[in-house]
Predict the structure of Putative ABC transport system ATP-binding protein.
Amino acid sequence: MLKIEKLHKSYPIGDSSLHVLKGIDLSVEEGEMVAIMGSSGSGKSTLLNIIGMLDEADEGDYVLDGVKIENLTEKKAAVYRNKFLGFIFQSFNLINYKNALENVALPLYYQGMNRKQRQEEGMFHLGKVGLADWAKHLPNELSGGQKQRVAIARALAAKPKLLLADEPTGALDTTTSYEIMEFIQQLNDEGKTILMVTHEEDIANMCKRIVRLKDGVIMEDTFVNQVRASQYV
């Protein structure tokens, strides 16, 4: 599904540069649920941004679902993101003036789907996250947990090969975090491949594998006995 080899990334700082990723090798198979952990500055967000085609590596290979990701123009990157990826962010990234249904249906607009189909698909995915009755509500009328469910529905609407979650529980209280993780685990049970950045050990242990970064290198990559969120909900 995802294969990264010898990935390097540096950022210029004044007259020098900061070497953030130092030869990362990472493979993720279809159906895996992987947590990426590391302290601030370890390179985990940079790695997620490169996988998400929001940034490009300086050197190294990145292959996603058999397609080599390289030399991306902004237009090509947008096409690939829409084709391969679904994103879940800590800050939800919902459009405030669009209701829940319109937010969920947005990726489908960029895929060229007609309005009637977008509405039907959007309602299906809102129903999947238990928010069909909230379709007409604006983001400011939703709780944090509901906003994240709308964001998950939006990520799923485009039928991505890979779901990228950047601190998906970071803005939520513990109970709501576990409810969201229960839902994400269900998606993984259905076969969805999930890559998640988190700094919370309890959330990481709800994945099946933990990759730990430090100073731009992978220090540890282990499969774990997955803790089911349902036991806390």
